[in-house]
Amino acid sequence: RMAEAAAAWSGPGRTADGQQVAVLANVADGASARTATKYPVEGVGLFRTELAFLDRADAPSIDEQIALYREVIDAFPGQKVVIRTLDAGSDKPLKFVTQLNEANPALGVRGNRIATEHPEIRASQLDAIAAAAEASGAAPWVMAPMIASAEEAAEFAGEVRRRGLFAGVMIEVPAAAILAPAILAEVDFVSIGTNDLTQYTMAADRMSAELAALTDPWQPAALTLIATVARAGQTLDKPVGVCGEAAADPLLACVLVGLGVTSLSTAPAAAAAVGARLSQVTVQQCRAAADAALATSSPAAARAAVSKVLAD
Ligand code: PEP
Ligand code: MG
């Protein structure tokens, strides 16, 4: 029955009682963005720009970047597009910027941290995004990965806003989740990266199959941090999205909405199942599911408690 509901669901994302929750796509380049338009998504919640440059020896030119960003923006005219600045390093090394001799790359100079030593790389990317936005007549949102402090968030937001764009940061470091009110005060929106947030909360490598039980997206410790971020978003009336794998699990998506998350971004193929499940539950049921999950102390117990609350 769930498969039928998913096949029939065409968006937009909303709960049974009509609360809007945008269901968005994670994309990597123009081709994947155009493919995403064939699924019931309302825009792009995460454009992982670094993926287009993984095999490059040298930094891409401004013109090359403008063309790439325009392809993604133009795939979703008039719709939301969230562009993430380079998340270089760790599992996504870029030859032209990543230091190869780090002892702990996941804890090293990755994501927005590259801008300290290579300010010109981030500046050229922001210039290219602003030029692409202007050429397309669009207003993409821009966010930075691997932000750990309010100072980093404020510095990034300043660079983005002086180019006339909406500025946000990813919340994927536990410190950023804990201090979400201070970080949200500096930016226009945040997006929670549950893959890294769970990795760093559990101190367990997201790439390790052996540690997969620890990096389960249902870990109550990570859900507790997500709750902190969502509450801060509600207090400050700013959007809080989720763009990690947690958003692709229909049952967990209901929990995220119950915690106060305002949009969900997933691999496009997962969008219909998530949207269909959300359309069957009320916000109140989502809140009850979130409370049930937060009251547990293991992923298995959280799944069981939420399945019970949302059983129809
Ligand atoms: C995340 O960390 O959850 C995320 C969305 O970013 P990435 O998977 O690209 O690190
Ligand atoms: Mg991440």
TrEMBL record:
It catalyses: L-histidyl-[protein] + phosphoenolpyruvate = N(pros)-phospho-L-histidyl-[protein] + pyruvate. The active site is at 243 (proton donor). Residues 11-281 form the PEP-utilising enzyme C-terminal domain. GO terms for cellular component: cytoplasm. Mg(2+) binds at residues 172, 196. Its EC number is 2.7.3.9. GO terms for molecular function: kinase activity; metal ion binding; phosphoenolpyruvate-protein phosphotransferase activity. Keywords: Cytoplasm, Kinase, Magnesium, Metal-binding, Phosphotransferase system, Pyruvate, Sugar transport, Transferase, Transport. Its cofactor is Mg(2+). The keyword Transport applies. GO terms for biological process: phosphoenolpyruvate-dependent sugar phosphotransferase system. Phosphoenolpyruvate binds at residues 48, 84, 195-196, 206. It is found in: Cytoplasm. It comes from the Bacteria. Coiled coil: none annotated. The keyword Cytoplasm applies. Belongs to the PEP-utilizing enzyme family. General (non sugar-specific) component of the phosphoenolpyruvate-dependent sugar phosphotransferase system (sugar PTS). This major carbohydrate active-transport system catalyzes the phosphorylation of incoming sugar substrates concomitantly with their translocation across the cell membrane. Enzyme I transfers the phosphoryl group from phosphoenolpyruvate (PEP) to the phosphoryl carrier protein (HPr). This is Phosphoenolpyruvate-protein phosphotransferase. It comes from Gordonia rhizosphera NBRC 16068.
